[in-house]
Structures are given as structure tokens and as C-alpha cells.
Amino acid sequence: MALHLTVSDLRFRYATAREWTLKGLRLDLRGGEFVVLAGVSGVGKSTLLNCINGSAALAGEMHGQITLDGTPLIGQPVAQIARLIGTVAQDAEGQIVTLRVEDEIAFGCENLGVSPEDIQRRIDRSCALLGLDPAQPTATLSGGGQQRLIAAATLAMNPRVLLLDEPLANLDAAGAARLLGALRDLASQGALVVVAEHRLDVVLPYATRLVWIEDGRVTLDLPHDEALVHVERLIRRMNLSAASPRQSQAEVAIELDAVSAGYGGEPVLRDLTLTVQRGEQIVVLGENGCGKTTLLRVIAGLLKPQRGRLRYGLERRQSLLRGIGYVFQNPNSQLFMDSVRAEIAVQAASPAIADEVMALFGLAPLADRHPHALSTGQKRLVALAAMTAMRPDVLLLDEPSVGQDTGGVERMLAALSALRQQWGLTLIVVTHDWRCASAFGDRVVWIANGTIRSDGDSSVAQEYFLRASSHRYTRNICAPLRSSPSAPSV
Predict the structure, then answer these.
(1) CA distances from 142 to 8, 23, 102, 146, 170 (A)
(2) How much of the chain exceeds pLDDT 90, in percent?
(3) Between 3.40.50.2300, 3.90.780.10, 3.40.50.300, 3.30.450.40, what CATH number should domain 252-483 receive?
(4) pTM of the entire structure?
(5) Residue 245 has pLDDT above 60, yes or no
(6) Which strands sit side by side in the sheet containing 60-68, from one edge to the other?
(7) Domain 4-236 belongs in CATH node 3.40.50.300
């Protein structure tokens, strides 16, 4: 008999909040389903997953029922629930606890009492499934590699129910296809797979069902074919156009001349040469591990080149620290004040600029909230706004659209476009999201194996994403939007 997970009249409110996040939510899920949870940032998708796995119990007040095959889960120890329900959280880096890939995959299995022989088989299977090297140090993994690792470690525990929160956040197309194929196979074998995700065009071809959450309740529940049609309509209505390109200046902002850089003596960037003019807007594309984040770290001064020359053309009045703003992949690494207002104001060039930036990014309603009480998408907007309020000459963005619903991406693009026109910001954006690449892509740089493969206009992004898209549904949506001059830029 297929397993049965029910959520009945679920209400949840965080201890730090006055409003209820979930408001009588109901949901009926069965083994063999691959269910996608969707909705705007902060609507309660992660909260629902954490209620199901028991981890939300200490974070606030919960009412209602959650049962698995008739057995109540609310009130059960998290350790007991974890034997049946596996979770892949949003913060991949924070979920990794060991030093090598094989040890990380073994860790959960050891806690379940799996035999050493079976653990080794599971390590081999999980690494082959998700393209991981069992001997690789976890500290050297890219953001996408970390994401694949925590998924592999959870899959190795053979859960009956698998919950994944934004698992595609930092994955390239190949990594996403590997993971989604594994999840589809797991569901076909009778497990229940539930994924909270914003990249719906990528995940839906593999799913059986779409559940839309709004205002703490389920407002839409569609089977596979209807979900595909619904999401295609949503995508074609998106308005993510960037402002008209700002004329870049002849002055050089950043110049890398035959730069090699990496970690532990092993180069990730290999003799890379790149010149960025002041006021340019550049998108950097490439597969996981190719060197995109390493490039940003070198430009930000966080990683010293092993060879080659790096030159800055920043305004003389500013130090390197204030001349370059860097928004990391993980927003938790950059949020340290006790309110959104304080976070944006603490390094702002002036109080007026802090207020302007907070309004442009749509963060005024969250001004008094603690940054770490926000959703991942909201945290990312706060980190971006805080860096922007410094009024740097160069702004580096690493996967800025992660955790963002369409409205969040629209606000982010509109705010950055307005400030770029006003201040002459130089933007360098690393992304796996074709929506951002289309809107930001005045100039597109494609990195492969640590060096530049292509450097040109938006046609480079079109070529990259059409090659990378692994499913016909995604390619059919993306291609017309990028090739037709009358279609909206997404």
C-alpha cells in the first residue's frame, strides 16, 4: 500500500512574528508522487517542509495535524521522524558537517545503523548518480557541488519521504538534470518527493503535481499537464526587462591580465584575461566548478592570484573595501544586525541613500524584522540592498535570483537598473538563471574550465542556455523569449 502523508488545518506562527505564516493549510500527498511547492518568497513553503520534518517545533507555535500512514508526526522527536523523512535544506554549506564527500554521505547512514558494507555501496551509488568524487574535500566544492552533496547524503539514507528546499539554487543544467532524474526515479519506486522551488520551468517536466501556496493556504493544486500549461503562461507574462543599457565609460574599472587563481595550489582560473569598463553590466555564465565564484573572489580581493596581474580603476576617494560590493551566494554570511533597517543603514553612504535603497528593493514592510527571521529570498534581497547602499563603484552578485519569486526578481532588476542609471554602477553578475541572464546581459562572458570560452552580447547567453537546457519544455519556453524582439525579456 502506498504511503500517505496528510496535513490538516495546519497553523504555524514563528516566535518572533505576530502574524501566522500558515493559516489552516490542508494537503493530501501519496507515495509515488513528485510534488512541487510554489508561491512567492516568504509565503510559507519552507515553513511547511519544516513542520513536516519536525524541525519547526521549537521555532514557534503550531496547531493542526500532520500524519504519515495515520501516525501523528507533531510531537514526535526529530530523530525519530528523520528515520522516515529526509530533508535537503536551503543552506547547503550549513548542512555539511564532515571533511570529505564520502564521509558526508556515510554520516547519516551511520546514524541509522546501516552496515559498513551497505554504506559503501550507498556511497558509490550516490556519487555515481550525482557526479561526485568520494575522495574530494568538502571545503573545495563549489556551491553547486555542495548542493549535490547534501542531496546525495540524504538520498543515501533511503527515506520514504524526501523534502527538498530550493535544491536547484546553485546547480547548472547538468547538475539539475542529474538530481531531478534521480528524484523522479525515487518517486517511481514508491517514495514521496516534495520540492519547494522557484525555477518551475526546470523542475516541472519531472514532477507529477504542482501545489501553489498563497497567504498560508493551498490555492492551486494541478496535475502534471495542467501545471506545465499554467507555468508557461506565467513565464510569458513576466516583465523582467532591464533598463536601457547605460553607456559605459572608456575608463577601466577592473583588468585581469593572464590571471591564474585557485585553492591549495591548484588553479581554478587559468590565464584568464578580462577587462571591465566603468558602467558596464556583465553576466558570467558557466557550469558548476568552472571558476565563476573564484573570479568574483579574485576581483573582490578575497583571493590572491597565483599568477598574472590584477588592476583596479576605482575612484581614488574610495578604498578597495568600499569601492567593491560583493553579495555572496549564502546571504547568512553577510547579515549581522538585528533589523532589516539597521542592516541596510550600517554601511550606507548616507541615511538618505539607505532609505532610497530600502524603498527601491521593496523592503520597507520588512524594516523592523530580524534579517535571520526572513525567507532565503528575502535575506538575499536584504544582503543585496545593504551592499548597494554602500554605493560601491563595482557590485559583484553571486546567484542573486536564488530564492526569488518573479516579483522579487522584477524588483531586484528594476532597483539595480535605476541605481545603475543614477550612479553609474559597474555590475558583474554570476547566475544559472536565464531570466537574470537575459535582463542583465549587456555583455555575457562564458567561462569553461577556468578560462573564457566566449565574450559577447546576449547571443552568448542564448547559445549557452539552449545548449544547457536538458528538457524540451524548458528550451521551447526560453528560445522564443530570447529570439523574438517583441517578446518580454526574462
Answers:
(1) 39, 38, 16, 6, 9
(2) 62
(3) 3.40.50.300
(4) 0.85
(5) no
(6) 22-30, 4-14, 60-68, 71-72
(7) yes
